[in-house]
């Protein structure tokens, strides 16, 4: 009986991992690939000399030598797959030229950003439904760095600092758990073809589970749980917003060709598990960060220690940097929270003031909020730009490495780890402490 259940579970996993489901969904949404004939050859799974850190997956007898049975096999006639890109054996009479299918309502497009590891610009594809393309592009951006640079500060400066602080804690730990799991499971991206790579920025990372699905689930539902009862709004409204946000991000990852259905579902459920663990202790963590005698030491040691663990799981990849980036931001925000509390800055409203109500929307309120947001984000972006420009050359000089090739230099753990912590630790600290202090000076608090 148990063996039958296990076999059935494995069968369901195989079914949900099939990249043909992703390809069918993309075609249903109006995405059409323009796959060209390209020669491929079996590889050894080692890094290419001209693409350091590029991990390969080799299909051997229908099974990957690196990731097991669920590694994006596109069917029985598989060919060597490199980081989710699978070569065509031939163009074939059944594969008509995509150019012949272009009509008046069709737009040609390429991925918006290059591959973060290899610099690959991706392959051109056709969009037959522009609305869905823009919708899911927006959805996938809800899990990217720039969104969090905008979202967390806006929430902190204009709405509720307590909620923003705790969301950053959940976000950082959620990313650490998700990215570390990726590096332990080591499944590659869905095979292309049949999948169209609408996005290639994260194509060199492992894919199980979907960390976009994890953050796209943890952030809205944690936001809902933190604000319901603290702010006055209908339960159904908050739940529907959180669910819609999560579904949009999850579905967008399938649309982009970055994840299989199984990986997205796993990311969604995994995030709920992480959230269930942290939600009961979030208040204690936040209180300790602000008032604990040894909070700064614990924050630095724990966040740096977790970064070292993440960097030791596998060879260099962008997921390592993303993990350190989240942990660095979390550490900077936690240290700033401690400083704010010790100096009596940005005190939370007393419990007697709860539940909070949204103030009356007025022209003055909107202008002040926009000014805080624009000035604050400008400060953060300038801080990030300056820190990026000076940190890598400084670290290269310290460790005796050439700094003329930044991409190559950052593939060394001793450069990438402190680089991410320094840059985003300063950004997180500035967001929570320095920028609000500047608002006081400018009479915008």
Automatic annotation (TrEMBL):
SMART domains to which the protein is assigned, alphabetical: acidPPc
Domain Phosphatidic acid phosphatase type 2/haloperoxidase: 168-279
Residue span of region Disordered: 35-100
GO molecular function, one term: sphingosine-1-phosphate phosphatase activity
Pfam families: PAP2
One annotated Gene Ontology cellular component of this protein: endoplasmic reticulum membrane
Any one biological process term the GO annotation gives: sphingosine metabolic process
Protein's UniProt keywords contain Transmembrane helix: yes
Name used for this protein in its record: Phosphatidic acid phosphatase type 2/haloperoxidase domain-containing protein
